Amino acid sequence: MNLPPVRIGFAGYGNFAQFLHRCWSSLEGVEIVAAATRHHWAEDLRIYEHWNSLLTDKEVDLVAIATTPNLHAVIAEAMMQSGKHILIEKPVAIALGDANRLLETRDRTGRVAAVNFMMRFTPILEILALWRHEQPFGRLRRVVIENHAQDVSLPPGHWFWDTAQSGGILVEHAVHFFDLVGSITNARPVRTDGWSHQRSVGIQDRVFATVFYDDGLVATQYHTFSRPEFFERTTIRLWFDLAEVELEGWFPTCGSIRALINAATEPALGMLPNFRERARRQVPGGSDSLGRKITVSGEPFSVTHEIEGSFDVSRPKDEVYADAVRAMLTDLRRAMADASHQLRVPLESGVEALRLALDATERAAASDSKMSSQDSAGRVL
Questions:
Q1: Which of 116, 112, 69, 67 is nearest to 89 (CA)?
Q2: How far is the CA of 75 from the CAs of 1, 17, 116, 166, 333, in angstroms?
Q3: Same domain for 109 and 142?
Q4: What is the pLDDT of residues 152-189, one digit of tens each?
Q5: CATH number where 29 lies
Q6: Of 351, 322, 205, 299, nearest in space to 253 by CA
Q7: What pTM did the predictor assign?
Q8: Is the pLDDT at 380 greater than 90, yes or no?
Q9: Are residues 204 and 234 in the same domain?
């Protein structure tokens, strides 16, 4: 499909927006023309001091919104009303009412609105999304996300710690992972829970969230921003009926798998990038040809072997990241050119991830309040 040219303006021009600028500039038909920023300068852009100047810039077709989260919704709504298409950095808003109003504005104006959940465009997660439909290893039953991040670039006065600007860790950061789980399962969330910890007044540096789904899937995630930069680590562990997968990195580029397979399902392992088999064992009581009938979670399967292996993208992380944001923009441009094109990350995905994040944040606040009351009562006694 030949895509028409697109001219892009940035609302906010910090490090991430500048990264997008560099990545998108290599795409044919893409021109970065303007940015609203008070802190940066670029000779090849029209620079505005306030984002509302983009509303009347007739040479801007698409606005990429990369400000602090508390401004995302108001900017997005104004841009769509002025005729601009939008790409919103996560989260789409920090209040659910604002997010729902964006859906109404999009539908009323006919503008294209996408969310920057770029992890969906990475090679490994694209394969897992296919497994959601094909289910070569049965259903996804359990997810555990452990994210131990740095706080070196987040001094006490940084907007990240100010919930009025960021919404808190579950809203500003964890929405990526709420969406990740939603992109690899057909199950629907039915309940959330949450917990948080404050290092000091105004700095909530540890959060925990659980989401329960209608088919029994349970997904938990723990995020802490307290480590040295060189000691960061994120792991994502997935349990299917017939497979266990561990991914490395918040932006996964490698991983390992242990799976029960048969002749029909083994090719699914080859879908993983650069898959390397480490071990193969015949299933006890089975045979190479007939396999063994087993039951998992009440569902019947036929398996012949247990296989262990590893996989990786075999490219620098920055290159994979760049390709993901290019693919995201290309998908958005297709929707701009063809109203029938279904966005891979529609605005609804951002609203759903925000809803879960806000629910977990509310649960965490209630739990913290209860614990504080119990602790105070204990000291009085």
A1: 116
A2: 30, 15, 15, 15, 20
A3: no
A4: 888 888 999 999 999 999 999 999 999 999 999 999 99
A5: 3.40.50.720
A6: 322
A7: 0.92
A8: no
A9: yes
